[in-house]
Amino acid sequence: MTTFVRAASLLALLASTTASAAGSVYAVLPTQGAGATAEATLVAQTMRLALQEQSLAQVPAARVESATVANTVACTQSVVACGRLVGQATSATHVILSELWDQAGTFELRVALLDVRVEAPPTWATYRTTASAEIGPLSKKAVLGLVSPESLAGGLSVQGPRDVEIVVDGVVVDRTPLMKPVRLSSGAHELELRSASAGSFRQSIRVESGHTVEVAACVVDGALTAAAGACPQGPSTTTSPPNPLPVLGIAGGAVLGVATITGVVAGYFAYEATVAYGDYVKSQNPDVVAGIRGNESVAIGTGAVAGALALTGAGLVAAELLLEDAP
Fold first, then answer.
1. Does residue 240 lie in a domain region?
2. Average pLDDT for residues 219-241, to the nearest whole number?
3. Same structural domain for residues 35 and 112?
4. Has residue 324 got a pLDDT over 80?
5. Distance (Å, rounded) from C-alpha 214 to C-alpha 173?
6. Which residues of 205-231 are buried (b: 16+ CB within 10 A; e: fewer)?
7. Domain coverage including residue 175
8. Which residues is 97 bridged to in the sheet?
9. Quick one: average pLDDT of 253-276?
């Protein structure tokens, strides 16, 4: 039943990604580059047509060009800064950035999707072709890759104590420890963390396309809270008791190591006793008997110590494994 609820919840969240794409407004910035002026114009035109074919809302080209001219200085210096200013001026949520370069007969097309609502830098993708006739289809492929639901999604990673329930927008999506980040649509979400022993905590998060929000679930003064990246360390922070498992493992390994060495010593003296006994059988020399008994005593004694150490080390290792599996 729990698996079914989680699957249904994830499907609902993924469906919101498509809704987010449908609610976005795109602006296609004039393509920048060098040595490929006509091809650069084709890239921008193809991208606008591709958005139109997908029935995605976009800012008219005339408004984008007017905003670009109004921000000539910024647009000359940085295509990302230009895109952000143009997006803000035209009320676009996303701006498609593109650069086309002709490098000795090889065309290199770089594209990126800038989310105007967040400060994160965009991620660039690069496409190459040696045929100018392929630039149009390549541009369409590039822009469709930028606006696909997969590219508009981000992720949420939560680290912290075991069995902390993760609730996004009122839907239970998973619990710690996470095997992989929870996939979410880009935009604002309400995150709630619930712990049976430390209560619950809520906060707003913003997911960026192609990025993962990292949240640490922390227990401070017995209450659950959250921090970006890692939990704060200090007198007021209630942390879990020191984990005894590494101590048990190291102690068990050390004891087993000493047991092995002691066992080798016992084996050596047992070997010496055996050899001495062989000499006695051959020579029937009574003086050899004392050496045989001495070696036998040492072998038996060290063997007993080795056995005790081995049992102790094995017990420590077994305790580590049992505690590791304990809730």
1. no
2. 66
3. yes
4. no
5. 16
6. bbbbbbbbbebbbbbbeeebbbbeeeb
7. 153-228
8. 112
9. 75
